[in-house]
Amino acid sequence: MRRGRLVDAAVLVALLVGAAATLAPFVLSVTTALKTTRQFASTPVLSPPAPPTVENIVTLFGRDYDFVTPIAVTAQVVVVVLVGQLLFSVLAAYAFARLEFPGRDALFWVYLGTLMVPQAVTVIPLYLMMTEVGLRNTFWALVLPYVLGSPFAIFLLREHFRTIPQDLIDAARLDGAGTVGILRHVVVPVSRPILTTLAVITVVTHWNNFLWPLVITSGRTWQVMTVATAGLQTQYNGNWPVVMAATTVAIVPLIVLFLVFRHSVVRSITITGFR
């Protein structure tokens, strides 16, 4: 019994250390964002702001930085990509899970194998393609590489669709439903938790996307939030409180998103049997 308590205590300590290491950057971001430039320069980094100030956030949305435009562009990109990902991933995943056609499994595993290709490898070919068709530095250049689905999304949904009882689909067919009707009235309703999880993952991924927007856009017209945040730090300007204000503003919507949909995320993990 004593040994078991020691093991439990060690596990608890390890979890607390891991939680502290995970939360520390976020706490540092918030506390730095609430400091003035003078406080940041004259006090230890980990010291709390005394007193807190929202001056950096106000400056961030002022005329000098105009952080509203990058947030609006990022939100538009996320919405379009989210709708496209859900629509086309559902269609493709259902085809790979339930429809019979020659080479189905081989095509699926070849497509899934693209998960092993780093994003940096495809940046130059994508850039050349977008440039050739005149889409460089446009909104569509930001969304087209992602809007038609992704290997991860299709794999996740395919594995879930395969767990749906065949009797439900057969019953829908007997009632006269076609493929679209089965998707609309059977597959999608019973897959809401996993679709919610996929939506959360998609929003977080593309809210934080940096490399592709950095390469394909220039100037401030289609600058997304991550690129705008990186642009706050230059060789001659090191206003860290404003930079931390930008990262704090970027984090808040994601935290709210998780808090709203946390039950659906947990439920989807239970349904899919992930451990």
From TrEMBL:
Stored CDD domains: TM_PBP2 (cd06261)
UniProt keyword annotation of Transmembrane helix present: yes
TM regions (residue ranges): 71-96, 108-127, 139-157, 194-215, 240-261
GO cellular component terms, A-Z: plasma membrane
Cell membrane listed as a keyword: yes
Predominant localisation class: membrane
Highest taxon, organism lineage: Bacteria
Keyword annotations from UniProtKB, A to Z: Cell membrane, Membrane, Sugar transport, Transmembrane, Transmembrane helix, Transport
UniProt membrane topology term: Multi-pass membrane protein
Subcellular location: Cell membrane
PROSITE patterns on file: ABC_TM1
Record GO biological process: transmembrane transport
Residue span(s) of domain ABC transmembrane type-1: 71-261
PANTHER family: ABC TRANSPORTER PERMEASE PROTEIN MG189-RELATED, ABC TRANSPORTER PERMEASE PROTEIN MG189-RELATED-RELATED
Annotated family: Belongs to the binding-protein-dependent transport system permease family.
Protein name stated in the entry: Multiple sugar transport system permease protein
Source species of the chain: Pseudonocardia alni
